User: What shape does this take?
Amino acid sequence: MALPSKMRACVFDGAESMKMVDKETPTLQHPKDIIVRIIASTVCGTDLHLYHNEMAGLRKGDVLGHEGLGIVEQVGKLTYKAWTSANRIDCS
Ligand SMILES: [Zn+2]
Assistant: This one.
């Protein structure tokens, strides 16, 4: 199944402000990349530091979030053989 050209993303919008925006759907850039369609996510302590703008280098528009459950949509040529399209994985 082809991925849509756009996806929804939660981005940093300044201290204690986040918003949902449309972003281009990512593409495989490296042979070890995978593309995961997130179906559930949560926040962790790191996200709170980002939300309060306590981490250097964060800029307005940076995509937040790194904890999730999803379905593998695409795999690079050098990914683990066990990771194939349609696998459900925990991203953490
Ligand atoms: Zn985390």
The radius of gyration is 15 Å. The pocket of zinc ion is lined by residues 44, 46, 66-67 (CB under 6 Å). The beta strands are 6-12, 18-24, 34-41, 68-75, 88-91. Residues 45-51 form the longest helix (7 residues).
